[in-house]
Amino acid sequence: MLNIEHISKTFFAGTINERKALVDLSLKLDEGDFVTVIGSNGAGKSTLLNAVAGRYTVDSGELSIDGTPVSKLKEYRRARYVGRVFQDPMAGTAPDLTIEQNLSLALQRGKTRGLGFGITRARRELFTEELKSLELGLENRLTAKVGLLSGGQRQALSLLMAGFTQPRILLLDEHTAALDPQRAALVTELTERIVAQGGLTTLMVTHNMEQALKLGNRLIMMHEGRIVFQASAEEKQSLTVPLLLAEFAKIKGASFDDRALLA
């Protein structure tokens, strides 16, 4: 479903600020895979997601989604294949539009937009049923502006919108990091449910090792733009946080001192 072959990305090449964010990185996700991504600060985790989404153009290498080469496609053209939830709850929704207007836009993502009515009775019924699955009472607030929602509610809505049209690949970029523990737990539970129900192929970056171990069937660890450790579905079942820290220390030759990974 997602095939990444030998991609590299360097920022500010040829200057004193040159930074190699991705270095000859390859990764393959089969349909239904849920891969969690962890690593040190500046490891290239978010750059990887941005490269898949098309926000960044890679310097070399190839990417394909569901057999379609996308390396040269602009971000808006990849939208038909990709759903995404960002770390910032404000980033994935339009605050001045209502809940139903946001959902209607999500439903049209990647499609040709005509001059027809954006919100029909049938769509409103669909939105109501989908929102009920969140168990947050948002189905009763269809005409409320999204900017009035809490961070947790907005992130739950963003998650629903990202999976709304069954994207070929779902990208989650530390989507619970800005939430308090209670709301983070809620969104984590919703993530597990939405991905499972939709059978969505998912790539999730997280700074939280416990979350990385709980969610998904595979795990990768990144450092300095490279994948330095991978765990298959079978191997992941026996992993623990101390074992992951030991793996990093073994590969890098030093202990992992980023406290955020233990949050």
Brief overview, please?
This protein has helices at residues 45-53, 75-78, 99-107, 121-132, 151-162, 181-198, 209-214, 233-236, 241-252, and strands spanning 2-11, 19-29, 34-39, 60-65, 68-69, 82-85, 169-173, 202-205, 218-223, 226-231. It is α/β, with parallel strands linked by helices. Helix 5 (151-162) packs parallel to helix 6.
Give a written overview of the molecule.
With 263 residues, this protein is an alpha/beta fold. The chain has one domain: P-loop containing nucleotide triphosphate hydrolases (Rossmann fold). It is built from 9 helices and 10 strands. It has helices spanning 45-53, 75-78, 99-107, 121-132, 151-162, 181-198, 209-214, 233-236, 241-252; strands at residues 2-11, 19-29, 34-39, 60-65, 68-69, 82-85, 169-173, 202-205, 218-223, 226-231. The strands form 2 sheets. Strands 6-7-8-3-9-10 form a 6-stranded mixed beta sheet, with helices on both faces. Strands 2-1-4-5 form a 4-stranded antiparallel beta sheet, with helices on one face. β9 and β10 (226-231) form a beta hairpin.
The CATH architecture classification is: 3-Layer(aba) Sandwich
Low-confidence stretches: 257-263
What's the CATH first level? Alpha Beta
Please count the helical segments.
9
Number of strands: 10
Give keywords.
alpha/beta, 9 helices, single chain, 4-stranded antiparallel β-sheet, Rossmann fold, 263 residues, globular
Topology, pairings included?
Blueprint: E1 2-11, E2 19-29, E3 34-39, H1 45-53, E4 60-65, E5 68-69, H2 75-78, E6 82-85, H3 99-107, H4 121-132, H5 151-162, E7 169-173, H6 181-198, E8 202-205, H7 209-214, E9 218-223, E10 226-231, H8 233-236, H9 241-252
Parallel strand pairs: 3-8, 3-9, 6-7, 7-8
Antiparallel strand pairs: 1-2, 1-4, 4-5, 9-10
Helix pairs in contact: 5-6
